[in-house]
Write a structure and sequence with these properties.
The protein is α+β, with helices and mostly antiparallel strands. 15% of the residues lie in helices and 31% in strands. The chain is built from 12 helices and 47 strands. The strands form 13 sheets. Strands 1, 2, 14, 15, 16, 17, 18, 19, 20 and 33 form a 10-stranded mixed sheet that branches. A 5-stranded antiparallel sheet has the order 36-40-45-42-43, with no helix packed on it. A 4-stranded antiparallel sheet has the order 3-13-7-10, covered by helices on one side. The longest helix is centred in the middle third of the chain and has 21 residues. The chain is globular.
Length: 765
């Protein structure tokens, strides 16, 4: 457990800048040229990887070709003078930490089309400056080319040309280290923005929810995302389908903003198109109160006293630095990067935490597809991993359970690469060879999908026992409808690599009401010791176990919506996030009660609905609480219900009573008996609830039996019930106090499925 960050403090006048504890480079700049790989004019098939900047100091280019060499990355470089230069390339042999043979990440550096003699990606278990020898530069401008040799995850951070042939550049770099800034000729100070009302860092569902919500409430917002697309795990880069129900509970309009852009992928991982990257960006850019900064990585924080004054970020393609000033800040990074840099209290579950997934897909081609026999991948046979059914390697391709959830992220991702390639090697070249001759891998996420790292501490730390006991916090506002879902290594697949499993299983605690949800308190959404810091997403104030229910994307997005509205209250009332709860919670409730499409141009402006805005269709709540209905309601889960035969539970036809309905086909005898007694002698109407469907019976026999009367009616269950909440009347009956009554449904002689949900007994005046 770690409760406080280990940080380096640099005094800057009245402010404090906190940077990660990466050793500072003291090496002086050299006479030469530094070329950042990410700044290449054309990336070709190389991918820009920004997810490990906090570990190794920089974005880099990754040759992610699934075994096919990727297209060259190219750029033009101007030299201050001609002459002899030593060339150093910052890279690594990415399988060397495991002493695996083969160096799969091999690539060449070409200068004006001529490759250097040295092949890169062949040395070093850690990032280092690989010496490429000397080169003669004979003209002021040359063309550089990164030429991939394998398609198996070669990586290049930067290229240094130095006139000092004995020069050794610094290697352990914090982001935008002084040496790198000097070599790139960057200004001594970053560009400084005018103050924003809210600076949101992280462009996943929670960050988008916070930014859009705050903007529509009249706040001026900066949204900073270090990827080229929005959506986080719910983007085309990671392809986790969005889970969690929205638009329910005490504030049913919360979630309407998320519903505007959430994907509806048919599978996880889904297709590129299903995640709607362009749609997400268009929705954000349509908000005139939002300034969107894609490909922008936040790496430093300035404080005045305990509060954050600004966040400094750099463009991951151009290295341009910008200092974003603000009144309020929202950490939606997942890893709680801003809170960590600001010295916020936090917690990490060091051992036995949930890991990182890299999902993948494949298909059957029309012609045979070759794949090299890999010596560096995990040595797997067909029974060492779950077969990827439906052409999908799903969420359970997950590792890193006992790794450092921050510092070991690149290692986790690379281990996942070795596992997937090892499984594919088994399918193509080992036990699965005969059945997969035409199989071809079509996609694998190089951006990992982590589940758990840092969790910032708020005024409430939500715990599993609170959720199970359904503790009713007065500020409960965001409904969490996902079960408490924690991941552990699956023992079946741990035999070969027990020290670092790569297949997980989900263990569910279904204490959460998955239809109505458990309301997460607002006090989990702001820092307890950094007064102007909000958080939303998986870095909110919860325990390891409670994280299992709040961590899914739509739920995180709704947290963002609440944070955005709370930020508006802060601006309007000139207060900090804690005071929203202690002094102005009714103001927040009023905003949470407003529709997602409503907005105002400023925090003191009037609300309006834009022209041509489309109202979302009403939510069809699948669940009707029996306790909310008049009379006596006996659901199919009631202890006084008796079944004959094996009935199937169903939830597909919405609007049912209780947690589900039941149904049974024709054939083998089946009955359901709803038993009850009335408390007072008199006349009562008996109603039956069912869901109509074309495969239901047109002649379902239903019998009402009491001591004085037996009546059977036949119900056409293909026709919608005529009464509210899906009921139909079975008639009016005289019942005596204390005498047993039962309503019996049967499949005798039916021409379809029999559907049973509940009965309702109402007194007749």
């Amino acid at each position: 457990m770690r409760l406080l960050p280990q940080s380096l403090l640099v005094l800057t006048g009245l402010a404090i800048t906190l940077l990660p504890a990466i050793s500072r480079a003291e090496t002086k700049p050299t006479n030469g040229v530094l070329v950042e790989a990410e700044s290449f004019n054309q990336h070709g098939g190389w991918k820009l990887d920004t997810q490990f900047i906090h570990i190794m100091g920089s974005p880099y280019l990754l040759a992610h070709g699934l075994g096919q060499p990727v297209a060259d990355a190219e750029t033009t470089v101007k030299f201050p003078e001609t002459g002899t230069y030593r060339v150093l390339v910052r890279t690594k042999d990415w399988v060397a930490p495991w002493k695996a043979p083969g160096s799969p990440g091999r690539f060449q550096l070409k200068i004006d089309g001529q490759p250097l003699k040295e092949t890169f990606g062949t040395k070093g278990a850690k990032w280092f400056w690989h010496d490429g020898g000397t080169v003669e530069i004979t003209k002021p401008e040359v063309k550089l080319t990164l030429h991939d040799l394998t398609g198996f995850e070669g990586r290049c951070d930067a290229i240094l040309f130095t006139r000092d042939l004995n020069y050794q550049p610094p290697n352990d770099l914090s982001p935008m280290d002084q040496w790198r800034k000097s070599m790139l000729g960057l200004p001594a100070e970053p560009e400084v923005t005018e103050p924003y009302d809210l600076v949101v860092v992280g462009g996943g569902y929670s960050g988008m929810g916070a930014a859009i919500s705050a903007a529509r409430m009249g706040c001026k917002v900066a949204l900073i995302q270090n990827r080229p697309v929005l959506g986080g795990n719910g983007s085309s880069e990671v392809r986790v389908w969005a889970q969690g129900l929205v638009r329910r509970g005490k504030y049913p309009h919360i979630g309407e903003i998320i519903a505007e852009f959430a994907d509806s992928a048919a599978a996880s991982p889904g297709t590129y198109e299903e995640y709607g990257d362009k749609k997400k960006e268009a929705i954000v850019r349509a908000e005139k109160n939002i300034d969107l900064f894609l490909n922008t990585h936040a790496f430093a924080v300035k404080k005045e006293g305990d509060a954050i004054q600004s966040v400094t970020a750099f463009n991951t393609k151009t290295s341009k630095r910008t200092e974003f000033r603000g009144k309020l800040f929202a950490d939606c990074t997942g890893h709680a990067e801003i809170g960590y840099l600001a010295g916020a209290d936090y917690y990490t579950h060091d051992k036995g935490h949930m890991g990182m997934s890299n999902m993948w897909t494949w298909k059957e081609a029309e012609q045979p597809q070759s794949f090299p026999d890999l010596e560096w991948a995990l040595n797997l046979n067909m029974d060492d991993f779950p077969y990827p059914k439906r052409f999908h390697g799903e969420w359970f391709w997950e590792s890193g359970f006992d790794k450092d959830p921050i510092q070991d992220l690149e290692s986790m991702r690379d281990w996942n690469f070795r596992a997937v390639y090892g499984a594919w090697n088994a399918m193509k070249n080992k036990g699965g060879k005969d059945k997969h001759e035409n199989a071809v891998m079509t996609w694998m996420a190089y951006i990992g999908g982590p589940r758990e790292s840092r969790m910032l501490r708020g005024d409430v730390i939500l715990r599993r026992k609170d959720i199970v006991a359904k503790v009713d916090f007065p500020d409960g506002c965001v409904p969490s409808t996902w079960s408490i879902d924690l991941h552990y290594p699956k023992k079946q697949y741990m035999q070969k690599y027990p020290e670092d499993p790569f297949i997980s299983q989900a263990v569910f605690d279904r204490s959460v009401d998955r239809k109505r949800g458990y309301p997460i308190p607002y006090r989990c959404f702001y820092s307890r010791n950094v007064p102007n810091l909000f958080m939303a997403g998986r870095c909110i104030s919860v325990t390891h176990e409670a994280l299992g229910t709040v961590r899914v994307m739509k739920t995180g997005g709704m947290m963002g919506e609440v944070v955005g509205k709370a930020a508006a209250v802060c601006v309007e009332k000139d207060c900090q996030p804690r005071a929203v709860y202690t002094d102005h919670y009714k103001d927040l409730e009023k905003l949470m009660a407003r529709k997602g499409i409503e907005r105002r141009d400023t925090v003191d402006g009037k609300f309006y609905t834009p022209e041509n805005s489309q109202e979302l269709p009403p939510v069809i709540d699948p669940y009707i609480d029996p306790a909310t209905l008049p009379g006596m309601v006996i659901d199919d889960e009631n202890e006084n219900v008796q079944f004959v035969g094996k009935w199937t539970k169903g939830e597909g036809l919405k609007g049912y009573i209780g947690n589900h309905y039941v149904y049974h086909g024709k054939g083998k005898k089946a009955e359901i008996h709803f038993k009850f007694e009335v408390a007072k002698t008199g006349k009562y109407e008996v109603r039956l609830a069912y869901g109509h469907h074309e495969n239901r019976a047109t002649n379902t026999p239903v019998t009402v039996r009491s001591a004085d009367e037996t009546k059977t009616v036949k119900i056409n269950q293909r026709v919608k019930p005529p009464l509210p909440h899906g009921f139909i009347s079975l008639g009016t009956f005289e019942f005596k106090q204390g005498q047993p009554v039962e309503v019996i449904m049967s499949n005798t002689g039916v021409d379809g499925n029999v559907h049973a949900d509940a009965i309702q007994v109402l007194p007749v005046d």
